[in-house]
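Give me structure tokens for this 114-residue protein.
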Amino acid sequence: MGYDTAAKTDPDSVVPEKWGGMWFLKEELGSEHLGFSILELEPDGKGKEHDETGTGQEEIYYVVSGTVEVELPDAGETVTLETDDAVRIDPEERRQIHNRGDERAKLVLAGAPL
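Here you go.
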């Protein structure tokens, strides 16, 4: 078969429900080279601070709804993203996503190569 389908709810969330949720869909979709995840953050929620130096994976974050701040401590910058904004981050750049807004934020995260 030349395609696979998946729903956000197929895998279990790796983030506690009180903070929102994060669903890794790579395996559900049978992807070999692209990581694909959905992240939802409640107000005051945050993602894990990390970099991808070990994997060499660049990441793209696209905001479906809400507003988030992406802290880039190595660059000494914070990037604010609103609905329909996106950012691409180099593998070696540390990053952490924060929802400092008043509503739940929803993002699509993609990373490659795996």
